[in-house]
Design goal:
Length: 320
Amino acid sequence: MDHMNYSSLKISHNHPPKPKVTYYNQTKEQIISFLPFHKPKKCVPIRSSIEKNSSYDTKSSPSLFTNIIDRPLHPSVDPKHDELGPTECPVVDGRLPDSLTGTYIRNGPNPQHMPRGPLHFFEGDDMLYSVQLSKGLAIYTNRYVKTYKYKLERDAGCQIFPNMLSGIYGIADIIQCVAAVARVLLGHINLKKGFGLANTSLAFFSSKLLALGESDLPYIINSTREGDVETVGRWDFDEALFASMTAHPKTDMTTKETFAFKFSPVFSPHLTFFRFDANGIKQKDVPILSINRPTFIHDFAITKRFAIFSETQLAVSAAM
């Protein structure tokens, strides 16, 4: 897609007014080209519930503490609102060039169920926002990535997995952790199907659009001709990869190979490097044994000859 001046383009749909979004640094974008599509039917926008869901239960003691000492995030950082199906957006200022064709998708955290206390925005469920452009039209939609965690909590109608990054503040949080372990032991939760999120980034390799997060494996996403966004399913690379991988794989545009790694905060090797061929088939693991402590490694870089990892001073250790 050719670069253009987006500051002169304003697109809106018939939502009620929302808080102005001013924080974009925690999301990643992906632009994928797409063929022209048939004009969809206009959908009735679903009323946003950000006003009633973006606040915490101020009656609980953890919330009283965090509202005074460590206030919750601004709603624009971690909003909570409903899914919206394909909706035609009228252009209210300027015009969209007929030649501008493609789909813009971004990924970010949005909690399906607001916790009773503080929330670290890393732990919000995965929401995809899509704008599909063709023949001077813009079709907007936003959908949750249907992870195993999302579907379990959707069916239960409440939060099941504890938010570990947000902290444990009292008996209720301890009970929630014990209940989650009990569900696993009783077979109500199958960890082989995943237990994490895909809210960090988007990647495109092996002819697949993927939603990724460090706590789980990638989820395959499909952008339809009508402008909708669908979750195809979790990609375990024919069971060649278990648990999780980086949310920032790197693709060699010459060989079409994709390079990635996985990080283990508990067991050695703490860092394992691997690659996928052009068909998405995982190759052998390469343990990085020089990393002898569980340091938090979020990203890496590749050159024609090297894979570069930065061993940070942020290390994981058990609190005594």
